[in-house]
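Annex B, item 7. Sequence and structure tokens for protein A, then protein B.
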Amino acid sequence: MSALTIENGAAPVVEEPPDTGARHKLTAVTGLAALSLDAMASVAYGPEAIVLVLAAAGGYGLGFTLPVTLAIAGLLAVLVASYRQVIAAFPDGGGSYAVAKAHLGRRTSLVAAGSLVLDYVLNVAVAVTAGVAALTSAFPELYGDRLGICLAVLVLITGINMRGIVDSARAFILPTAVFIGAILVLIVVGLFRDAPVSTAASAGHASVLADNASTVGALLLLKAFASGCSALTGVEAIANAVPSFRAPAARRAMRAEVALGALLGVMLIGLSVLISRFGLQPVEGVTVLAQLADASLGHNWGFYVVQFATMVLLALSANTSFGGLPVLLKLLARDNYLPHVFGLKADRQVHRHGVVWLAVVSAGLLVFSGGDTNTLVPLFAIGVFVGFTIAQTGMVLHWRRERGPRRVAKALLNGLGAVLTGVSAVVVTATKFHDGAWLIVIALPVLVLAFEAVHRAYGRIGERLGVGRIPEPPHRERSLVLVPVSSLTRLTSEALTAAVSLGDEVRAVTVCHPDPEDVAATEALERDWALWNPGVPLVRLPSERRSLGRPITAYVRDLEATEPGTRVTVLVPEAEPAHLWQRVLQNQRGAVVAHAVRRDTNAVVCRLRFRC
């Protein structure tokens, strides 16, 4: 509401400002660039994760790369179709959290939210380290500096996102297009090759293929499937951030979801076909994608374009978290499960507190891992599959309550998705438990308990404030204003002028310590005060300890006990230098007094800033 006017007794006329926020929201194309980089970039490590597991069964095991990938692509198709339904049913965003909150209860919704938070944070760390790993694969001399490079990339992405999700999307459209184009060209050219054009990238590197292995068990296939499912992380990001799209937001988000699924499926299957066609074997120190680029395009400029595009997109795929997590944190803050500061929005539709918090925690993970992808990957993808399962289960209940067309078919689709993702969640957790996944098993309930603690705290605060109840009408009380002083200056005069304007009675207070020097200074102040005669009494507060806050708070507590009908205000005068650097010259006594009074009494604290 920009203006409210009443003329001649007429009803209020409300003038709504034009919608100027659309330019800070996403289209289907920019949404794909801003929110799908995580899923897109997973083609760089998803097929490799499958190959590394199957390599334990030797060359015979690698023959199952394509069947495992097809199973993952089938699950991807189910997830994309299911999340289109989530977007349509919950256009306010929140994904699995919103679905669970509506149909599965509060505790389940918090499990969904916690799993998404963990996955988003881990995605940033994994994406940045994987991008830098691609860089060091092409330029091995940079390997020792990978942690510093990781932190620099994180700072860059954070800075771009502080300008808004649309600006970040525009910045990432070109790298996204280059990466997709490079991978598709690699696949198409490779399909016309009968044998690798070059093996220079893997020359001199030791193979990790097991010797004398000729059988592939169900457990190994399940483990390969679980590892390859890391390629599905990020599929839910668009459903979580529907409010970030321009109107009609749900329709644009669904288009972006379908485009993401189609591109990701084509790239995963195409790369797996080439792995089988070229008989590729994983080697130490060189990524599978680098070997495929070498085999398909040759060890030339095309190879380096693929490597550079992969590096850039892997690093920038952290942007999916910066687009989705702040929206989720806003919803949690709105429901009193996180501090309300996460719900605040700056210019350009930026949830800056969520962006900064994500960057700080991700930086801690990067330091913890030393910039090593393999340290973080075992923790990855578990949370997102928990969220997948909860979302699909909730949607089954959603269609049971809805009376729309084809609701049975929709419920069956979501039911199939719930079964598949539930099994995947169990398999991923079991196969990666000893590799570090146990940390997620511990962290998720801890995070849920933290949400509950915040909610209980807001409940207590709301009860004390009487939120939702009509309060008593305001009434006037006698007002007493205390002004701490230590000398007679213009600041003292300005403070007393403000105080007499605020209260019925004003008293100046000064703290006196037993040191002879302090006693002499206090007596001199009292003499000057009597000569000045401002019409305000000066009260001496003796203190045996070298403290300013305690004697003043003790005096305030005495006043509150002896004069219960009086509203006490402490007005703290402070000089504020014109230049920022000059503020370090201040003694900060005003801040000490204000903090002590606010902490230990019920008095109103006012801080008068005198610019000088």
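Protein B:
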Amino acid sequence: MTNLTKTPETPQESGIVENTDAKSAGLLHWIIAAGGLATIASTFLAWTYTTEFPGDLTVNGYPGGLQVLTLVAGLLLIAFALSGLGIKGLRWLTPGGSAKALQFLALGALGTTWYTVIAIAAQLGGIAHWEPGAYVAFVAVLIPLASFSLKDDSRKPAKPKEIPSWAEILVIVVAFAIGMYAVTYGISTEDPELFIGYLLLAGFGAAALNKSGLVSRISAIASKNKQIAAVAAFAAAAVFPFTQTTDTFTVIAVQILIFATVALGLNVVVGLAGLLDLGYVAFLGVGAYTAALVSGSTASAFDIQLPFWVAMIIGAIASLIFGVIIGAPTLRLHGDYLAIVTLGFGEIFRITVNNMDGDNGPQITNGPNGIPNIPALNIFGYDFGETHTILGVELGSYANYYLLMLLVMVFVVLVFSRAQDSRIGRAWVAIREDETAATAMGINGFRVKLIAFALGATLAGVAGTVQAHFQGTVLPEMYVFAGPVAPNSAFLLAAVILGGMGTIRGPLLGAALLFLIPEKLAFLKDYQLLAFGLALILLMRFRPEGLIPNRRAQLEYHEHDENADKLDVPEQRPPADPIVGTSKAGA
């Protein structure tokens, strides 16, 4: 009788299949590396013959403008392809696998390069304005798309090998230096075309680094050396004004710091306590108006000029009082009702300061004319309005404000981190997750929410006092709910959600992006808010937990994802018990 039972696969046959797959993957990696090399070669050829297109892409042998971004994309493709091949010295680039990383890098190279050559044709009037380099680049960036034929080799990073302490410190320093250089490059872009190309490459590049597991590896090293990481981050940020020859981009950097500081204060209310505040920018205005009234402005209703540190304390206290006054009667509300009340408070503040002009109300805020001529800061004899030479480098007035705002941000980050890890911080998280259960466990929900509201308002007030002196004037229209110019309540809330609620790095990144993008894309004019809305829709669809989410949010949003086990989260999983382990979404 014939035996119809299937003969088990022999180890030799299985090995043949595995070897075939390995050879195929290896060949694809070499193809991707070749595509990266061709992409690099294209940047040393002229892409157009006229200098009318920004960046001067007419020179052979010297990349310029957007060609530099394509060059970087090609270098990254080669490095990650060789890492995927297991080349010694490059394996550390892809601890979580190379397939997904290469796919994002391929898209980044394609998007940046095709955007450039299409923009050349669109602005100059057709592909007749392309030089040979543009044709080579157009085709070369198609080759790395072979990465989409790679099997998903993503894996949970293996336990990292122990490296010496000096090597960990070196990794932290290099990581922050590269990160700061990338941010500085984005801030310093002068042409909209160059900034759009930078956004494309930076977005896909960040996704590639995340998918490769490199970000997780560096984050683990930084967590192990928290103090060194904090010092390195501060040092990298402090170097920025020393790299600038004018105040043009330093002004943008100061405004980003102000916006980021206020967003981090809002993160206490929204991210930790879970309170939807739509009028938070009013607390920034309270601090700014308070400082303007007591700092010696010629338009102030009070003929006094207090030292800055006194004005800052008064501004913080004023914001604290307003936070308590508004929070006490409204924090017993929940959800949409609380959002509506806080939105009303923000509009009431703006209308009130607009009417205190001596005609519609008392003469205090000078009405729609605001309070101009706020004198420059002078702290212990150091005049922020004058140029100073530090370490042989001449720093302009805005560089002084940049360094001051950096210190203010350090203070706000310290307060946030301490509050988050404290007993009251854990109470905020409990209230955010389930107020009923938290109340049943003995937490006074109203009291802890009021503390969160007051603390968030105080931090906004501190930032407002610096903003008043930096701007030199305060106006009612600076503190609206929504508009194309940050900071406003809508942009502040979006910064927290975009970056990642309940984290420190998230709102800082979100605020930087939401301020920098409208600033650099001002040419869009009336279409700015449309582009902003589309970006938020895409983010909520593909990254609802934010760009830098906390671990709890990552697990909640991807709990039922078949790839959840590949997330950069700890080993724990939600409990299997159907009652205890019910997620918030399914409660």
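Comment on protein B: The longest strand covers residues 388-390.
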